[in-house]
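Bug: token stream looks shifted between consecutive jobs. Job 1:
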Amino acid sequence: MITKLDHIGVMAHSWEEASSNFTGILGFPIDESRSPLPEGSYMAAENVRIYFFRIGDGETLVEVLIPLDKKSGTAKLLARRGPGLHHMGYASDNWQEDARRLRALGLKQIDLTHGKPELVGQPQGAAFFHPKSAMGILTELVPHIRNPWGALSPSGAPLRVE
């Protein structure tokens, strides 16, 4: 079952652009547990660096995708539309089963290997669905992960619960 809105994915040209907006202007702290600095996380299927920012006291994150080439789908979309919304990611307690259910209901799942032999057969930790089959929104299913930082103060600092 889909359990929550996990994250909103956005595209940016660089870490500097993303951190200037999300940390410098909006005050969102980087989630270093999911975004080891300075490299962030790497997604081979799209050849992007990924950084997560926490939003206030909630569990929803902003995921920033920064293309490392000009050939990937993300890079082409960024070149065409500029920085901004990329996708919405929903958490699921069983994302593989939910992916089967969404396919059965007519959503078109995207092949994350993009035909690259080096990615075929590798475990996938998410499922993406084409925007043309999902009201114009690139849709992602990810495993539900409980809030890893626990309760937070309004400043984003962990609260001690004693």
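Job 2, same session, no restart:
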Amino acid sequence: MMHEQLSETQLEEDENLYLSLMLSMDQQVLIPSHQVIEIISIAPTQITPIPQVENPMMGIYSWRGEILWVVDGSSLLGDTALCDRQFWGPRYSVFVVRESAEHIGIMVPDVGNLGKRSRFCSHADPPKPDASPHISTNPIAPLKQTITCPPIVDLVDRISQLRHQLRATWN
């Protein structure tokens, strides 16, 4: 997943709140906070695997007396599956989201912070013109800062796509 380049105006206009999550040491995504119902911490051993159901579906978990399907969020979002990593942690965070009439759990390695999008973006100064006679700069047009932000991921849309793929496989 690539980072997005935004203008200062685009960043200022986004008043929504986002949760950041790290899929790996160098891959961060933002989740619209209104999609998350609850975040729980569970051990992978608490998930009951379902035979013949493949990644990114991990299995089911009992949540508040309800069966919660748990999906590997890293795999769902294009990173290495949690179970394929060298270190399989003792506990992971699970985002509980609502898709259609069901709750789905999205297991991720690390939950970051809550905030406006600008909190998670990095600002880089534009390259300074050098003294080379071959490069001309326009003194009237100031060089703008580059703003790089983690991508926003719509979990509900990703889960809906996964559900359609699974139904096609099972039928």
